[in-house]
Amino acid sequence: MKELVETIARALVDNPDEVVVTETRKDKTLYIELHVAQGDMGKVIGKQGRIAKAIRSVVKAAAVKEDVRVIVDIV
What we know:
The chain is an alpha+beta fold. The chain contains 3 helices and 3 strands, in the order αββααβ. A hairpin with a 2-residue loop joins strand 1 and strand 2.
């Protein structure tokens, strides 16, 4: 999951070297934090949060195979 979020985020931002993704697992829940440069926050979130919702949807769809609950936070 970490690699999926990182690949999507790097494709969206102007500074792909500043993309950092951390992954923490507790029981059957996977917490993913996405850190990007301050200037790239708008590109990752999108208008009315549409891109952020799309990223979360793709990750949740991929998590169904592993039977894991995923929470994606953009920091």
